[in-house]
C-alpha cells in the first residue's frame, strides 16, 4: 500500500488549492495533515474526508491554498492609537530599564598599574 498523489484546482473565485498525499504500508491508520496556520481550520475536514476512504497506512497530506490575484485591500492605520501605543512602550521601557550611570571618561595618559596579586604562598602569580 505505497502511493503518491497530487491534485490541484480552483477553490472559489480567487483561490486555488493543491493537495499532495503520500502513503506507505502500516498496520493502522496514521494520518498526518500538514497545513499553514492560515489553513489550520481545513485540517479536520481533510482528515475526515480521507478517513472515509483510507482504512490503514501511514498517510501524509500536504495542503496549500493560494490566492490567484493580488489582494486589493486598503490598509488603514489609526495614527492616534499608534502614537498612544508608542508612548506607552516608551514609558514601560523607562520603568523597567532605569537609566544607567554614565561612566566617567578615563584621565589622559596611560591607565594606572594594578598591584600584583600574590598567591597564598607569597609569590607573585605567573601570567
Relative strand content: 25-35%
Contiguous uncertain segments of 5+ residues = none
What's the total number of strands?
4
Q: Describe the biggest sheet?
A: 4 strands, mixed
From the spread of the alpha carbons, the general shape counts as: flat
Indicate the mean pLDDT: 81
Structural class: alpha+beta
Percent of residues in helices comes to: 10-25%
Describe the overall structure.
- The mean pLDDT is 81.
- By secondary structure, this protein is an alpha+beta fold.
- The longest helix has 18 residues.
- The protein has a domain of 65 residues.
- It has two helices and four strands; from the N terminus they run E-E-E-H-E-H.
- It has a four-stranded mixed β-sheet, covered by helices on one side.
- Helix 1 links the parallel strand 3 and strand 4.
What's the gist of this structure?
The protein has 127 residues and is α+β, with helices and mostly antiparallel strands.
Search tags:
alpha+beta, 127 residues, four-stranded mixed sheet
Task: Reconstruct the topology from this structure.
Elements: E1 3-10, E2 15-24, E3 29-34, H1 43-53, E4 57-67, H2 79-96
Amino acid at each position: 500500500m505505497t502511493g503518491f498523489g497530487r491534485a490541484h484546482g480552483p477553490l472559489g473565485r480567487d483561490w486555488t488549492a493543491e493537495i499532495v498525499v503520500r502513503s506507505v504500508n502500516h498496520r493502522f491508520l496514521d494520518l498526518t495533515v500538514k497545513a499553514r496556520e492560515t489553513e489550520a481550520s481545513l485540517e479536520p475536514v481533510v482528515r475526515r474526508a480521507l478517513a472515509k476512504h483510507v482504512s490503514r497506512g501511514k498517510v501524509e497530506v500536504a495542503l496549500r491554498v493560494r490566492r490567484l490575484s493580488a489582494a486589493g485591500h486598503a490598509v488603514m492605520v489609526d495614527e492616534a492609537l499608534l502614537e498612544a501605543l508608542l508612548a506607552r512602550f516608551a514609558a514601560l521601557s523607562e520603568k523597567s530599564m532605569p537609566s544607567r550611570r554614565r561612566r566617567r571618561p578615563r584621565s589622559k595618559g596611560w591607565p594606572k598599574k594594578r598591584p600584583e596579586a600574590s598567591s597564598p604562598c607569597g609569590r607573585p602569580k605567573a601570567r
